Amino acid sequence: MALQALAFDVFGTVVDWRSTVSRESGPYLAKIGRSDIDLDCFADGWRARYISTLLTYRESGRKFVVLDVLHREMLEDWLRELKIDPGAFSEAELGNWTKIWHRLDPWPDSAEGLTRLKARYPIVTLSNGNVALMIAMAKHANLPWDAILGAEFTRSYKPDPATYTGTVAALGLELQEVCLVAAHHADLAVARSLGMLTAYVDRPLEYGGAPHPDIAAAQAWDHAADSMISLAAQLGC
Amino acid sequence: MALQALAFDVFGTVVDWRSTVSRESGPYLAKIGRSDIDLDCFADGWRARYISTLLTYRESGRKFVVLDVLHREMLEDWLRELKIDPGAFSEAELGNWTKIWHRLDPWPDSAEGLTRLKARYPIVTLSNGNVALMIAMAKHANLPWDAILGAEFTRSYKPDPATYTGTVAALGLELQEVCLVAAHHADLAVARSLGMLTAYVDRPLEYGGAPHPDIAAAQAWDHAADSMISLAAQLGC
Fold first, then answer.
1. Full-prediction pTM beyond 0.90?
2. A170 touches chain B (CB under 8 A)
3. CB of B139 within 8 Å of any CB in chain A?
4. Cβ–Cβ of B147/A139 closer than 8 Å?
5. Which helix (H) or strand (E) holds B22?
6. CB A135 to CB B153 under 8 A?
7. Least CB-CB distance to A146: which of B135, B149, B153?
8. Is A72 exposed, middle or buried (0-12, 13-18, 19+ CB in 10 A)?
9. What is the pLDDT of residues A54-96, one digit of tens each?
10. Is the Cβ of A131 closer than 8 Å to some Cβ of chain B?
């Protein structure tokens, strides 16, 4: 069977969460006199909570709640670990801080690459981000998605196989007709184990140049590129 | 509260199902020597089954299945009523015939009007069409949706209130911040009863010039326009 549609991981693959979260968290921490905190480390700590929470979400037995809710909980948890009382901020401040994830900047090649890929294939999100977050991000970063699928649509979080299989089913396609595009080997490994096609996009700056935490999961993927534009060229778009 | 997003009915409001279904059904009926059947009546009969099936879907207790499946069942049912054995057609023929609904032509103003509206507001589908159908239709008719919500996302069919409330919840908004855009008074009446804003777009040719079946549900809606372009102008887009 041939490729019929592309499904994308988003955080880290299409947008640069670290630099945006770092930059926009600065004023909040400065306001309470905590400019001593390294902003990149602050962003990394928030993101680390995301990874650990979602890796075990299915096993936790917790009912599905959207990522906006989880991002807010993780922020408050991380602040407490830094000995900061979340009550030092207003409800509006905590809400806006959490919504940094709605306005992450894209990698420089994302909008052009996705636009080229979309001319030939349906392009959908297969991300843990919720619908409202993904719509806001798409407007901010000019991402021309055909549909927002993934976590909220399937009421499950990657790496739960249901997130992948439910997204592919909504496209009316077989698993081997849909390619997951991701900068993360562990994400691609789940997709491959289910029978999906795989495309790796290298994002060496996702962690500021440090190795990705899932480097050990690296394999020879069906496609590998160093940008969305390069992937588009490889796929004849 | 002010308008924050627009949610659209699609069949009849954004696309002209009748002329496309009529035109594309001709060759199938001609193939079996049934050119005596009026093609507009054929389209109307198929659509009538859609309306009666979905009006009672919730009460039927049937598990959610996507509209592609229901459209196929309705086609076979309608053929039998016309004394045509569906077995006169191959599986591929019946599948392609059903997929007429994936490639409906837009009303002439839809693509331009939606593009203008999208520049200011998120625009999402609040249709009974499934995701695969809506993606294919959007590519065919150049409809720039921000997200495909509605029936498959909420696992319910309009006029079930869950379809409306689930779509609004996914946008992270309150009901009174989202406007349903529809050519159908009965659809708008449900939206208004739930607290949503309402915009009527007149489509006098949906039934070939005949009155709409839900004319008795007409009310003074929050907005009324004779095209998507006119609606965009009214909303300052």
1. yes
2. yes
3. yes
4. no
5. helix B17-31
6. no
7. B135
8. middle
9. 999 999 999 999 999 999 999 999 999 999 999 999 999 999 9
10. yes
Residue A196 has pLDDT above 90, yes or no: yes
Mean pLDDT of B179-189: 98
CB A196 within 8 A of CB A164: yes
Check if A134 contacts B (Cβ < 8 Å): yes
Q: Give the pLDDT of residue A213.
A: 87
Interchain proximity A130–B68, CB inside 8 Å: no
Which of A135, A145, A168 would best serve as a mutation to test chain B binding (most B beta carbons within 10 A)?
Answer: A135
Asked if ipTM goes beyond 0.90, one says yes
Beta bridge partners of A182: A200
The mean pLDDT value of chain B amounts to: 97
* Dist. CA A88–CA B24, nearest whole Å: 64
> Nearest-CA residue of chain B relative to A150?
B153
